[in-house]
């Protein structure tokens, strides 16, 4: 597999810093990398533009940027979240025989970070690491439901409401109306909006501060998604997310 040279060099620059080497001058980096200063300067400026490298204004030396801290914290929090949520996802799947998902928000998309296959219907579109549009998915709707309309409009700037099925929401106005309903009910539904023949329901997870940090969903065949069945699934989902949120320090009201 070919390696992209510029990316490889940029990552190696980041690896030069450790607990004992907090700052380096461009000359020092050039010597360690065995590269011309002009090449190193271009790489540093690119990393600096994306906040992976910062520069000490007094000494002119370079150091690791806050973007690495932000990304590192995201990875750690996701690992903690998965370990806390896993047994609850398994309980939910075993109770319903359905596939359960754990999803986080990344920009304008949801990202599956865990999945437990049910013994019933197989859901093909979901896999760990896959992204899903927020407007066609129950998890996407649940993830953004804690945002007020001003925050939501900011998030949706430049968003494309691509219709994946005939049922998909096709405009920002309709999406905001949908989110208002999600806020009122405490759960979100994907009514064959992402995959024909599959209905999903989802409920958000909150951390100790009350911030929505993830969502859990279940998928069921549309043919069996009666109002009574969905109400039962929502009840179980709320029990599941209640337990996860409590372990993360948030206290839900009793269902």
UniProtKB/TrEMBL annotation:
Residues 67-250 form the IclR-ED domain. This is IclR family transcriptional regulator. Keywords: DNA-binding, Transcription, Transcription regulation. It holds the Pfam family IclR_C. Gene3D superfamilies: 3.30.450.40, Winged helix-like DNA-binding domain superfamily/Winged helix DNA-binding domain. SMART domains: HTH_ICLR. Residues 4-66 form the HTH iclR-type domain.
């Amino acid at each position: 597999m070919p390696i992209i040279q510029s990316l490889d060099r940029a990552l190696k620059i980041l690896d030069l810093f450790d607990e004992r080497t907090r700052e380096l001058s461009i000359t020092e980096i050039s010597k360690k990398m065995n590269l011309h200063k002009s090449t190193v300067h271009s790489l540093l400026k690119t990393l600096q533009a994306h906040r992976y490298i910062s520069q000490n204004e007094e000494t002119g030396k370079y150091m690791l940027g806050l973007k690495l801290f932000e990304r590192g914290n995201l990875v750690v929090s996701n690992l903690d979240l998965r370990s806390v949520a896993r047994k609850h996802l398994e309980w939910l799947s075993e109770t319903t025989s359905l596939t359960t998902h754990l999803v986080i928000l990344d920009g304008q998309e949801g990202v599956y970070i865990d999945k437990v296959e049910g013994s019933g219907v197989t859901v093909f579109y979901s896999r760990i690491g896959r992204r899903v549009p927020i407007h066609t998915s129950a998890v996407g709707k649940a993830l953004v439901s804690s945002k007020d309309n001003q925050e939501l409009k900011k998030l949706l700037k430049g968003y494309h409401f691509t219709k994946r099925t005939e049922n998909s929401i096709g405009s920002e106005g309709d999406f905001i109306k949908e989110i208002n309903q999600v806020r009122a009910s405490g759960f979100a539904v994907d009514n064959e909006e992402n995959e024909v023949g599959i209905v999903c329901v989802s409920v958000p997870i909150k951390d100790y501060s009350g911030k929505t940090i993830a969502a859990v969903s279940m998928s069921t065949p549309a043919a069996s998604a009666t109002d009574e069945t969905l109400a039962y699934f929502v009840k179980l989902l709320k029990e599941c997310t209640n337990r996860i949120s409590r372990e993360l320090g948030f206290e839900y009201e009793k269902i």
